[in-house]
Amino acid sequence: MNLAYLSLGSNEGDRVLWLESAIKLMSAQCGSLVGRSSIYETKAWGITDQPDFLNMAVCVETVNTPEELLTIILDIETGMGRHRTVKWGPRIIDIDILFYNNAIVEKPNLTIPHPFMQERRFTLTPLAELAPDYVHPKLHKTINQLLANCPDELEVHKYSGV
Q1: What is the pTM of this model?
Q2: Which of 15, 36, 49, 82 is catalytic?
């Protein structure tokens, strides 16, 4: 079995419902959910003139290869109604593969570890809750170390449900 750490985000409609729906679909199609972070809220990153995001991290135990996992995730996003029109724009759901075991994958359509995660507090904060001592296989730093040195200044708060 393989362990994959994934990041989930949503900033349209019932954001909590979208995150929970994605988790159910991933559990049914990707493998067993073995861990999940709290939900965090942050202002939009990249294009800032849009609703706030809810983000979280999950860990899935899967028999799928990284490429198969990506295909399943993209199908889940599409099935939930995600339309890729504007980079960093609003979205019902966004699911990114952060890590897959300790693999380093560099293909035209897939890069693992996620190439920008160390620059994004909204990704590192939930991941640090879930796997604080996980060592990034390329940067050779723990998630806690990456978070402590993250250049992103956007505030990330645990979501209170209000």
Answers
A1: 0.93
A2: 82
Domain containing 75: what range? 2-158
Interval 64-80: pLDDT, tens:
999 999 999 999 998 88
Number of domains in the chain: 1
Q: Is 82 a catalytic residue?
A: yes
pLDDT of residue 84 exceeding 80, the answer is no
Q: For the domain that residue 153 is a member of, what is the CATH number?
A: 3.30.70.560
Confidence (pLDDT) at 68: 97
Q: Is 94 a catalytic residue?
A: yes
**Is residue 91 annotated as part of the catalytic site, yes or no?**
yes
E strand or H helix at 110 = strand 110-112
Question: Does 52 qualify as catalytic in the annotation?
Answer: no
Catalytic residue, candidates 15, 36, 96, 121: 96
